[in-house]
Amino acid sequence: MVPKRTLYTGAQIPAIGLGTFGSDRFSGESIAAAVLGAAEVGYRHFDCAAVYGNEHLVGESLQAIMRGGVKREDLWITSKLWNDKHAPEDVIPACKQSLRDLKLDYLDLYLIHWPFRNYHRPGASGTERDPNAKPYSHDEYMETWQQLERLVE
After folding, report:
1. Which residues are 18's β-sheet partners?
2. Which terminal residue of the chain, N or C, has fewer Cβ atoms less than 10 Å from its own Cβ?
3. Region 132-143 average pLDDT
4. Contact 83, 117 (CB under 8 A)
5. Number of domains composing the chain
């Protein structure tokens, strides 16, 4: 059994999870199969992100896991808000899209993937910075964070 860590809210997050990044090297179907395999050996934490381009396939695997008898409340699903969705009006719709793609009613954790709104262009390598990127703004970051807080309510 995977150990859990208790967060300040009382929620318990599995200490080991499967990251679903890799669609740049593996097919989405391979990632979805990895989710199923991980669940079979006891994983319950799955780390996702819209930018990985595979949440719809991961969602199908999550549904299969639950049809197989694992309760939703026994899973911990994380997803992340991508750089181009930091504008306050984009945060909630982006989360709702991840929920639709993952075929879930809620996420256990929704993170800001990267603190800069447009640091990397979509499809850019991890080392390539967008030459038009704006510098980090704490005020903008907090506007994004405030919208994330609304998702909890």
Report:
1. 46
2. C
3. 80
4. yes
5. 1
143: CB partners within 8 A, 6+ apart: 88
For the chain, the residue count is 153
Cβ atoms < 10 Å from Cβ of 84? 14
User: Is 52 tagged catalytic?
Assistant: yes
DSSP 70: -
Determine which one of 8, 52, 106, 141 is catalytic: 52
Residue 75: which of 67, 85, 86, 83 has the closest Cα? 67
Residues 6 or more apart whose CB falls under 8 angstroms from that of 126 comprise 120
Q: For residue 29, what is the DSSP state?
A: H
Q: Return the SS3 of 13.
A: strand
CATH number at residue 55: 3.20.20.100
- Which residue is it, tokens 């090297």? 25
Other C-beta atoms within 10 Å of 123: how many?
8
Residue 102 confidence (pLDDT): 98
Q: Per-residue pLDDT averaged across 135-139, rounded?
A: 79
Domain of 74 in residue numbering reads as: 4-152
Residue 122: pLDDT band with limits 50, 70, 90: low
Enter the DSSP assignment of 109. E
